[in-house]
Write a structure and sequence with these properties.
The structure holds 2 protein chains of 2 kinds. By secondary structure, chain A is mostly beta strands. Chain A has 2 helices and 8 strands. The chains are: A mainly beta, B alpha/beta. Bound molecules: flavin-adenine dinucleotide and FE2/S2 (inorganic) cluster.
Amino acid sequence: MNPRELVRAQPGPAFTVTLDGREIEALPGQTVAAALWAAGVTSWRTTRDAGRPRGVFCGIGVCFDCLVTVNDRPNQRACLIPVRPGDAIRTQEGTGHHD
Amino acid sequence: MTDRPHLAVIGAGPAGLAASLAAAARGIRVTLIDSAAQAGGQFYRQPASGLGARRPKALHHQWRTWERLRDGLAAADTIHQLTDHHVWCVERRSEGFAVHALLGPEQEKPATVHADAVLLATGGYEKVLPFPGWTLPGVVTAGGAQAMLKGGLVVPGRTAVVAGTGPLLLPVATGLAAAGVEVAALVESADPKAFARKATALAAQPGKVAEGAQYAAQLLRHRIRFIPRHTVVEAHGDARLDAVTVAALDKGGRVRPGTARRIPCDTLAVGHGMLPHTDLAESLGCRIDGLKVYVDDEQRTDVPGVWAAGETTGIGGSALSLAEGHIAGRSIAARLTGTEPDARAWVAVDRSRTRTREFIAALDTVYAPPAHWTDQVTDDTVVCRCEEVTGGEIRAAVAELGAGDVRTVKLLTRAGMGWCQGRMCEPAVAGLTGCEQQAARRLLARPVPLGVLARAGESSPEPSGEPEAD
Ligand SMILES: Cc1cc2nc3c(=O)[nH]c(=O)nc-3n(C[C@H](O)[C@H](O)[C@H](O)COP(=O)(O)OP(=O)(O)OC[C@H]3O[C@@H](n4cnc5c(N)ncnc54)[C@H](O)[C@@H]3O)c2cc1C
Ligand code: FES
């Protein structure tokens, strides 16, 4: 059983987005974080000081650990932002303003 | 219709929904504002509509109550719902209130709602105390795992440990298991025997006891090992979590030497209770008692025209939020139409509110983080996740620089100065500094673009139901 089977989900057609240029599939309605989790990715940012990997922590927009660059906009909270067809998602290094 | 009194409700969780329905049923025009894409709050969080869930109730408890709320909301033509609106500030004006929000996921476009009264129903967020490795990807808050599961129908990994303390761990462990995650253990630091000592308060809530029994049965069914009186001492892994070490606690809440055991897992869902969201109340100048918004019997704050209900006034679960919301809605309807509310009209709800509060108070004494949790915070444990401030730096600020309160530690170390504004590290910084946690004074509830700030306050004070761009 997986969560989608559990609730008998019949999602709209999947679409493609990229993570650092690599294609991944996403479903309509998912947040960027949910799409990345579904693709088996749990970290998409490194910290400013120690360069440590981070991903979702609070899941509800409070902790800002899940920051990510989407379509060249850095510091978007992946757990809040809906994923859209064609999104170019990039792992974010530090403040996201260097690259 | 437009000359009806107008209430702005912030937060569409159980409290905000119950209040909106109660007020609307009594002739009040309501604008219900929430940052999420759908109503429901944390407890009734729904899968995104694009996911086409045909049986969403498989992930929920008390589905009937949700159906009633949802149908009521759809039927009430005097409730105007604003989704995707992040409220960053509520301003008191000579005539009513201006609720300032930022629209959409990028949160840049501003919108303002004018109202005669405001209900704060913004709920709470999870508290997690630090330990080595808690910043590793794969370590998530228990509620966060639940939110991602309920909303996005995704799970963080294959094998999970659910740990910490509090009633939220039960739905999280059983929810993850039902969704196909192997839950290797539910590690609860509290002692189940302590419940026996609270037998009287618990027996007054047979419904809650039955709920507990249902969870116990589900743990058995999913073969989830329940490990009480234990705590997580370390999360291991390099780029992501691969194991956790748990250890037994003695009666005084200290880790018992020689009891450590390692459990392989790729996910740790961890939580140590909840904290109320109080930012909006603070910016309105409402009295805060300890960590929660003060309210009277009618759920009124001490600022005229401002009510509060649900977990913003103290953590107590969805049933209490519903009761408080209902009472707030009735009180608002009476007060806004110039009548004295008749408390006899809500006697039954009042009784359930009192009982639930007593029950929660009893639970709180059982579910408390281990007394000596700071022992787990080694000097190189990151405490402030945003600014990467360690336990050692905080201890040095106290021991060497003489800091004796959170504010001074913050100024000296930058703990709590980052993106989350201390929401994640405040309880830990207070604990390591050796002082009580106080409600933080945050100017804004959300990060706000400077241009929006500069323009705020320029819009007209005319009360109107429709959001206006300013
Ligand atoms: C992540 C998480 C998951 C949880 N999951 C469960 C669970 O599965 N089972 C359970 O029994 N309990 C759960 N809880 C506990 C839950 O908080 C309560 O049981 C209940 O939902 C509280 O109701 P409420 O109406 O007070 O607040 P909430 O349900 O938290 O609703 C508050 C609402 O206010 C909105 N909001 C907050 N601030 C703003 C703002 N500034 N602008 C606009 N909108 C805002 C939020 O989006 C939210 O929808 C969870 C808590 C958290 C933090
Ligand atoms: S995970 Fe905390 S803000 Fe996204």
